[in-house]
Write a structure and sequence with these properties.
single chain, about 120 residues, mainly alpha, 2 domains, FIMAH domain-containing protein, FIMAH_dom
């Protein structure tokens, strides 16, 4: 009986820790990111406002690349837009663990790769 009680307590502890880990506070830091250049812009703005992108210069540089990619796409220059977004990926990769948290850097890179595929 004591062994069953210990197992039950362990399961309860795991449940509590799981709920604490997936709390509204962590959910607040996540958002739906449409696979578009506009969605990438929203994503970068969101993560800067959450503090996941900690340097304003890095933030401004990322937004400038997104804006340039959008302008290129609007002119029908898909290859140029793709090249600009690949430069953004390289910058995010270089800033991971420096001015961008590793989790968010990974997310932005994946998001950008999907945007490039959808150009």
């Amino acid at each position: 009986m004591a062994r069953i009680m210990n197992i039950f307590l362990l399961m309860a502890l795991i449940t509590v820790l799981t709920i604490a880990y997936i709390s509204p506070a962590s959910a607040q830091n996540e958002m739906e990111c449409p696979p578009t250049i506009e969605g990438l812009n929203e994503c970068i703005n969101h993560h800067y406002s959450q503090g996941d992108i900690s340097n304003q210069g890095t933030y401004n540089s990322l937004l400038a690349k997104v804006d340039a990619a959008q302008a290129a796409r609007d002119r029908g220059q898909v290859d140029t837009a793709s090249n600009i977004l690949n430069a953004l990926i390289k910058q995010v990769s270089a800033q991971s663990s420096k001015n961008i948290t590793p989790e968010v850097a990974s997310h932005i890179i994946q998001h950008t790769q999907i945007v490039i595929e959808n150009l």
